[in-house]
Amino acid sequence: MNKKIIISSIVILIVVVVAGGFFWWRQGREIKGSPEDYVIMETAEGIFVENKKAGLSVKVPEGWEVEKMEMQEGLIVFYSPNVEGEIRDDKVVPPLREGCIIHVSVIYEGKDITQLKLEARYNLALLGVKSAEFEEVMINNYEALKIIADTEKIGPGVGVDISHKDKTYSFLLIFTPEERGVCIQEFDKFLETISIK
Q: Taking the complete model, does pTM exceed 0.85, yes or no?
């Protein structure tokens, strides 16, 4: 009889732990942002995109277009003037034939570099990774993870993830192999305009 009570207690404890873990995970994954959080402003210094809720501001590269996307926690996409193709649901449709695309998103959850690397490896695997290099860098005095990769689904790209306090800011550049140099140069200039509060 004591064995039955002990086994029942262990089963109940496991169920409570699993259920609690699931609800904790769901709470942490609650969507906390939206495309409406992003405001596009024209100033004397150029066009800026600001997300006050996330404490983020970036400058739109000269001549580029900006589009808000309906995706988890909000996504904003920057298109170079010569872009052919568009990004939808994290896929370029049709495949990017010319130009550069930068997309910016904010997840309301802080992560360390190890977590960022694990998530990047997982996401790259889903995209059919061909090659990937990881580097820890500083972007405007913030520690960041830089990923240079080539994938089957979206082609070559450079990603930068910055985790600050309780948020993770992701910046992804997608380009055609022929325009790698020009696109990376524009992306580097773009990264210099990032302001996080």
A: no
Q: Which residues of 27-36 are buried (b: 16+ CB within 10 A; e: fewer)?
A: eeeeebbeee
CA distance 5 to 11: 10
Q: Which of 154, 147, 146, 148 is nearest to 176 (CA)?
A: 154
Q: Phi/psi of residue 70, each to 5°?
A: -85, 90
d(CA 103, CA 174): 8
pLDDT at 154: 85
For residue range 42-59, what is the model confidence (pLDDT) as tens digits? 999 999 999 999 999 999
* DSSP three-state, residue 38: coil
- Span 3-8, average pLDDT: 41
